């Protein structure tokens, strides 16, 4: 019923459709359905208050992993189905201003049902906004962006997450169409919580090639008991976090590349994984993407930070994507990546090494609206311990856009 209602809403506002938003609040045009026109009330609203567009996406998946022994415990039943339904509404009340809303409903964690408690980076980023048994419809994001100085400066205010503005990447940033494992979507060292919180962002272009973004967020005290955690809008000045990113965009032989340097600092003090100690999270990182051929793109991430109560200090990932491997499948995409996490030498009296992740996917584009993707991941030395079993997880993902 929810999906049927969503499709009806989308058809009501389809004309003038726009694509997913970027961090500055712009929208990339996509083709609209021929023959669809807006009803009279929508046209009257837009004539008076500005254009509105609604887009939707349904992602369904089944993901499963092998039974493993980690820290001497048997971890079983690491599998299950799931889905996400997202409706995105964009309203431009001013020529250079934009309100963005995202409504979410989802269910299921896949292989993350139990394994998420034993890994530094989870296996199913699609399900980050889901609860195991679903929790109804949520207004996940709501923020307004205003641009100034011929679109060279923007200010954004509202409820969103850090990765909306920081640590983006052209080839490893979208769990719905690219990799699904956390190390190939975001930097786990700074992705301390999967939450959407009050955020103030200021960004702009210093030159045609150089952009700077800075943001402040208020933390919800995530390691405290749930009854003590702050709610959205409560005590906004307590426990802030700060981030800044500089992006240099260039072209090598006509092929686009982006080179990002960012810093991150949380003033909130987390409890350690076993309840010991308290520590703020601080990190610096790089996120790079570069096309080396019209069909080939490469990416890399690297980060070092102070997060010892969580057990690790640095992270890296590298990989790439190849489009149109087969002549008759020019829109299909193959992706491959490898990532590693470095633990501090000793944690709770135990020596630790590096937790290593591998992932590969092949996205089969059926048409403008449907795509199917088989995906496989392998995690060696979970928790940085060679005596922990290797994890192998597979997923079949289906996408439907409307």
Q: Taking all residues together, what is the mean pLDDT? A: 83
Rg of Cα set: 21 Å
- Give the number of helices: 3
**Structural domain count:** 1
Q: Characterize the overall form.
A: globular
Can you tell me the CATH class?
A: Mainly Beta
Tally the beta strands.
Answer: 24
Return the CATH architecture.
Answer: Beta Barrel
* Strand residue content: over 45%
- As a percent range, the share of helical residues equals under 10%
- The CATH homologous superfamily corresponds to Carbohydrate-selective porin OprB
Instruction: Note the main sheet.
Output: 16 strands, antiparallel, barrel
Going across the biggest sheet, name each strand in turn.
3-6-7-8-9-10-11-12-13-16-17-18-19-22-23-24
Q: What is the N-to-C succession of helices and strands?
A: HEEHEEEEEHEEEEEEEEEEEEEEEEE
Structural class, from secondary structure content? mainly beta
Give an account of the 3D structure.
This protein is mainly beta. It is built from three helices and 24 strands. It has helices at 2-12, 40-49, 112-115, and strands at residues 18-21, 27-29, 52-65, 68-70, 73-75, 79-94, 97-107, 138-148, 153-160, 197-205, 210-218, 240-252, 255-266, 270-271, 278-279, 282-293, 296-306, 312-323, 333-343, 346-347, 350-351, 354-365, 370-380, 391-401. Strands 3-6-7-8-9-10-11-12-13-16-17-18-19-22-23-24 form a 16-stranded antiparallel beta barrel. It has a two-stranded antiparallel ribbon with strand order 1-2. A two-stranded antiparallel sheet has the order 4-5. The two termini are 16 Å apart. Mean pLDDT is 83; it is low at 1-21, 26-35, 223-228 and 273-277.
């Amino acid at each position: 019923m929810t999906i049927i209602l969503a499709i009806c809403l989308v058809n009501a506002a389809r004309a003038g459709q726009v694509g997913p938003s970027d961090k500055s609040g712009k929208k990339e045009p996509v083709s609209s359905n021929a023959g669809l026109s807006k009803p009279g009330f929508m046209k009257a609203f837009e004539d008076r208050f500005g254009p509105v567009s609604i887009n939707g996406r349904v992602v369904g998946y089944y993901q499963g992993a092998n039974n493993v022994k980690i820290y001497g415990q048997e971890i079983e039943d690491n599998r299950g189905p799931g889905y996400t339904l997202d409706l995105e509404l964009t309203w431009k009340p001013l020529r250079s201003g934009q309100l963005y809303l995202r409504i979410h409903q989802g269910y299921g964690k896949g292989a993350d049902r139990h394994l998420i408690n034993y890994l530094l980076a989870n296996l199913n980023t699609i399900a980050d906004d889901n609860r195991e048994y679903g929790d109804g419809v949520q207004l996940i994001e709501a923020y307004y962006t205003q641009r100034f100085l011929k679109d060279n400066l923007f200010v954004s205010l509202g409820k969103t997450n850090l990765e909306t503005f920081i640590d983006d990447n052209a080839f490893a940033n979208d769990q719905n169409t690219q990799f699904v494992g956390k190390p190939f979507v975001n930097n786990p060292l700074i992705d301390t919580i999967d939450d959407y919180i009050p955020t103030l962002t200021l960004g702009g272009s210093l030159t045609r090639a150089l952009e700077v973004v800075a943001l402040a967020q208020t933390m919800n005290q995530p390691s405290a008991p749930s009854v003590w955690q702050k709610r959205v809008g409560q005590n906004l000045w307590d426990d802030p976090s700060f981030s800044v990113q500089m992006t240099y965009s260039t072209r090598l032989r006509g092929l686009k590349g982006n080179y990002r340097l960012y810093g991150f600092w949380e003033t909130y003090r987390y409890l350690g994984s076993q309840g010991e100690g308290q520590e703020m999270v601080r990190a610096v990182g790089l996120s790079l993407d570069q096309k080396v051929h019209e069909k080939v793109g490469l990416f890399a991430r690297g980060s070092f930070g102070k997060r010892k109560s969580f057990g690790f200090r640095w992270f890296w990932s590298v990989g790439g994507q190849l489009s149109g491997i087969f002549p008759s499948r020019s829109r299909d995409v193959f992706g491959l990546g490898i990532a590693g996490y470095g633990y501090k030498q000793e944690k709770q009296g135990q020596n630790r090494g590096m937790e290593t992740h591998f992932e590969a996917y092949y996205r089969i584009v059926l048409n403008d609206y449907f795509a199917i993707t088989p995906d496989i991941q392998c995690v060696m030395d979970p928790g940085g311990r060679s005596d922990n079993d290797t994890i192998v997880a597979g997923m079949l993902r289906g996408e439907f856009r409307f």
